[in-house]
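Researcher: Here's a chain I'd like modeled. Treat it as a single chain, no partners, no ligands.
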Amino acid sequence: MKPLNNKEPGERLSQPGTTRTGKKRGRRVLILLLVIGAFAGGFYTARNPTIVREIEKLAGSKGEAESKDVYYCPMHPQIRSDKPGTCPICNMNLEKMEKAPEAAEQAAKEQTSAKGKPLEQRKILYWTDAMNPSFRSDKPGKAPDGMDLVPVYEEEDRPGAGLPPGVLKISPQKQQLIGVGYSRVIKDSLSKTIHAVARLAYDETKISRIQARVDGWIDRVFVDFTGKLVKKGQPLISIYSPELVSTQMELLLARKSKETFAGSVFDEAASGANVLYESTRERFRLWNIPDAQVREIEKRGKPSTSMTLSSPAGGFVVNRNAYPGQRITPETEIYSIVDLSTIWALAEVYEYEVPLIKLGQDATMTLSYVPGKTYKGKVTYIYPEVDKTTRTLKVRMEFPNADFQLKPDMYANVGIEVDFGRQVSIPQEAVLDSGTEQIVFVALGDGYFEPRKVQVGARVGDRFIVVSGLNPGEQVVSSGNFLIDSESRLKSALRGMGSPAHAGHGATGGEAGSGSGQPPSGIDHSSHQQKNGKTMQREDTAPPRTDSGHAGHSTGDSGVPPGMDTGRSSHDPKSHQTGGK
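Model: Modeled as a single isolated chain. Structure tokens:
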């Protein structure tokens, strides 16, 4: 029984082992079949060239994109680098290219020239290093600093036939990147208003100072306060004067003598009486005694103890020195009367505005506390002296004041209208002013731009009057002209670097291009950086710095991003100086 018991457990234990061994064998067979299938698929793939090329293309582009980043200049897309840095043309920071290189290359191939030719059909003059423009080659390749050589086309290197010297060409894509805007030269009527703050004052030509021309005493005062409005001929005071009394008696005697000798046969006596009478009446007129009072004395037949002094002009009393019983003399100023029917406005304008102001020009005046009303007047006088403290000149304007709303010492806003007539003008943004000359870029069409010297006059609003240099109808650059100026100077420097005296320096990997070595005639762009004999560099461009002996060789800081080799080959300084002479 015991062996039987030992056998039965043995048989039962052997069944699970047999099952596991069968499963292992099945897995091994499946793995073997998979390996055979993989080898068969790989063999078929290797035998199919189309699949091989696609795999290699995908693997190669993916590996290149993952292993190397491309940085480019947004303003000059042809400038590329494998490391961060700055653009040698405009000094902008290079940005990492996000889109696929194939898309950028396809966009570049779609560019067309001004003549409608595709980019690949345009004639390539030479190849150059964008980071070191002095390096040139007659075939594509790598520059000594590792950068890809950039092609320079015939249309980019020199202007088209028949165009003025100094003309440069910029592709439409680049114009869009730098934001080029245009404005047309127009001829139209221009006017300008010079604004200033004015102080109102009395019209000095209408101030009357009243004085008695005889000695005496004031008997009565008819105008007894300052500021009162008086009319011409209105009584002011009555005055007692012994001299006036005696003159009245002489008048009465002279009149009686005239009447006595009127029918006399003695002509001399009659003539003398008439002369005495007229001279007495003339004396009253010289003392400003009205004729009505003289006739009243003659009618009454006896002198009056006091006589009335009347106002010779109408206006407001601004000064009073007349009181009852006061003794007066011919030197005593009794009243000051000002006519406010017209008023002066005294404004101060800056000295640079003085040439625009002429006598007789129209002027307007408004008061902040009288809204909606505008007063119209004229410029009547320009004072001859400039205030040395404020550097302003005083200008006088005259305004009517029939209702006496305008008061002296008020402050008002005045505007002097300046009419320039019909003038040629351009926007002020179109002018590049270096201090010694003014430059504009004239758009000639098909992407060509001509830098041209102009002479500008006064600024009217946001426009400059053009004295000479432009004609109506021409088109000028009004936006992005600073970047066009930097592009023009860069291309001028490139042409200068291609001179025979410098053709052999640093030319490796190909034959160096030849050129005239002379910058294009026309505009001298160096004046944009020089003023008063001192070198000045504009912030928006990075012009290549030049040595005093050789305009085509950069020294010092060349604007090349850190870590980039310029590719300049070393040479003997003595031979360099000899070749440069």
